[in-house]
Amino acid sequence: MKRFLAILLCLVAFGFEVFAQQTISGTVFERNASKKELPLAGASIVWINSNVGTLSDAHGKFVLKTTNITDRRLVVSCLGFQPDTIKVNSNTPLRIVLIETGKQLNEVVITHQREASMVSIQPRKTEILTSKELKKAACCNLGESFQTNTTVDVTYRDGVTGSKELQVLGLAGAYTQLLTENAPTITGLGSTYGLYGIPGTQIDQIHVVKGPGSVIFGPESISGMINIELKDPMRADNLFVNGYVDGFARAELNVDKTLKVTKDLNTLFSFHIDRYKQKMDQNGDSFLDNPMLQNVNVLNKWKYESGNGLFSQNSIKYLHEDRQGGQMDFNFDQPHADHSMYGQQLVTNRLEFYGRTGFVMPSDNYKSLGLQYTYVLHNMDGYYGLREDDGQQQSLNLRLIYNQNLGKYNSVNLGASYRLDKIKEQFGDLYLNNDLSMPGVFAENTFTSQGKRPVSVIVGLRADVANGELVFTPRGNVKWELNKNTDVRLSAGTGFRSANILAENSNIKVSNREIVITEPLKLEKALNYGFNINRKFELNYRKGSVGLDLYRTQFANKIIPDYDTDPTKVYFSNLTGESLANNVQVEASYYILKPVELKLAYKYLDVFRKSDGVRITEPYVPRHRTVASLFYESFNRKWNANVTWQWFGSKKMPYLDEAQRNEISSYSSSSRPYSMVNLQLTRHWKNFEMYLGAENLFDFRQHNYIVGASNPYDGFFDASYIWGPIEGRRVYAGFRYKIDR
C-alpha cells in the first residue's frame, strides 16, 4: 500500500509524457436567437464516413484523434441545432458555432443522432442514460429510471412503506454515492425515500460509475456512483407538461417552465405532484399492497453564463411527502397508539439548496476555479405501529476546486472540502445522534498519452479527518485503446463512509424486532478494483457493441445487521472476518434491423462474508440476472416501442422459524426464480406525444411477504421478507406536451 500511495503521489505531482500522435481539439458554441454564443455541451463531433467521434464536455471542449483519418471533414451536430461539416486543414484549436434551427425534429436532417445510452470516452467507465433512454419507460421518479439498465438493481425494502433502494455490484444502496448535479443531496435521513424525491421528468441525464468514483466528490463511493443531471434552463423546452395515470389510480402531473431573465441569466421552474390514495389488498393479508401517498415537489433552478468566463448555477428545491401504510381498516385520523390495527405514517418536509460558481481564467492553458455548495434541511415526523419515528437533519457540503491543464497531456484538479452532518433520530425508545464533521483535501491528475494505442490515466488521492480520524483515499483508473473500436479499462481505489443504521435499514422499522447495538460502530471501509473491456463492431452495415465487466469489493470494516441469532432482535456490530462482493457482467447490443435495437445482458453476483470460517451469503441478492430489451423507432420517428424482459435467479432468504414459514409464499432458504416483462408504445406528433405501457405484464406476484400479518403486535412480525414483485401488473398511460424555445 505504501508503494501504491507513493506512485499515486508521484503521478499527481509530476504527471508523465509519451510520444505524441496528432490530435485536434476545439470548442463548440451555440448561437441563440439573441446572437449570444455559449459553450455547447453534448454536441457530437465525428469524422465523416467513420465511427471515430466524441462529445463536447460541459464547457463545450473536445479532443479527437486524427490517426488513420484520410477524409479530414468533421460533422458537428446537436439536437435542436443546424448540423455543420467542417474541413480541417491544420491541428490548431477549432472554434465551432452551431445555430439554433427553430424547427421541429422531423423537419431537420441529423447526420449523427445522439444515442439513448452510451459509455463515455473518459478513463473512468461511465454509463450515460439520456432522456431518450428514460422515456422508454414511464420513469415517474429516480427509483423507476433503471428498468432497461443492467448495472443498477432496484429492490424493495419492505411491504408496508413501498421504499426502494438502488444497488450496484450487489451491495446495498448505502454504498452507492448518489449525487444531484455533483451535489451530495441524498444522504442520511433522505436515503430512506430519497428515490421518490427526484421526478423522472426533471432528469436530463444519469451518469452511472461502477466502483470508486472521483476523489473530488468525496470518499463515500464504494460500490459505485450515480450522478443525476437535471434539465438545463438555457436548453430545456420553453414549456413541458407531463401527465400520468395507472390502473391503480396513481396519478402524476409535471409542469416545467423556462424563462429568459436577461441575455446571460435563465431560470427553470418545475412543479411535480404524485398522488395515490387507493386502498387495495389483492392478497388478502389485511395490509395495503401499496402505501397511500402524496408527494409535492417544487424546483427552481437558475443558470448564469457571462460569456467572459464567469459561470453560476443554483437550485432550490422543496419536498413535502405524506406516506401512509399498514392495515386496510386502520383509521389515520385516530391516534396511532391503537392495538387493534397496525398503521404507519411518515410526513417529510425537506429543503435543498445546491449549486456551483466558477470562473475560467484567460490563459494559454485552461485554468478554472470553482466553488460547489450544498445545504439540506430534512424533517420527518411519523410512526410505525406503536413506535414513533422522528428525525431532523442538517447537512452542509463545501468543495473548492482548482483545475489547470499542464502541457499537452495532463490536467490536474486540486482542492479542499468540508462536510458537516447533524442528524438526530428517535425510533421508539432508541435515540441516535449521527453527527459528522469532515474536512478534507484532494488532488487528481488526468493524463492522456498519444500514439497508435493511446493510454489515459486518472490518479487521485484525498485525505479526510472524519470525527478526528485521519483517513487516506487513493484511487486510480486506466484506459487503453487497443484500436479505434476496442477499449480496456482498469480501476482500483478505496472508500469509506459513516453509517446511519436506521435510515439505511428501514426494513427493521416494519417489524417488532428490538434493535441492539453491541459495540461502538466504526467507519465502514472497503477496497474496490475492476476490469472491463468494450468492443464496437459493424455487421451487415449495422452497428453493435459487446462488453465484459469484472469487479470485486473487499471490506476492511462493515456494519453487519444480524437477523438470525434471535428472531425478536437485530444485532448491529462491526465486521469480524471478511466480507466480499464479486460481480461479472456481460452486455451486448446490436441493430438487428436499422430501426430495431436489441440489448442482451447477464450479471452474476456473489456477495458473502466469512465469520469463524463459516461462509454466510448475503440475503436478498440474486446470484443471476438476465435482461433482454428490444427497442423500435420508425423511420419518421412518429412511433417507438420498447419491450424489456428480466429474469431474476434465486435469492438467499433470512432465517425464519418453522412456525412462521407457512405465512410466506413458497418460503425456503432460497427464493424461487422469476421473470418480468415491461412494454411501452409511444406516438409522437409535432409538440405532443402519448404513451401507453404495462409493467409486470404477466402479473407475477409474491402473494405473501408479511410474517405475522394477522397479529402484528403479538409474537413475531416482519414485513420485509420480499424476494419478488408485490404490486402485480401495472397498466399506465400518459402524455407529454412541449413548446420549444
From TrEMBL:
Q: Which residues form the TonB-dependent receptor plug domain?
A: 123-224
Main location (coarse class): membrane
Q: Matching InterPro entries, A to Z?
A: Beta-barrel_TonB, Beta-barrel_TonB_sf, CarboxyPept-like_regulatory, Plug_dom, Plug_dom_sf, TonB-dep_rcpt-like
Source organism superkingdom? Bacteria
Residues spanning the signal sequence: 1-20
- Where is this chain's protein located in or outside the cell? Cell outer membrane
Q: Name one Pfam family in it.
A: Plug
Report the protein name in the record: TonB-dependent receptor
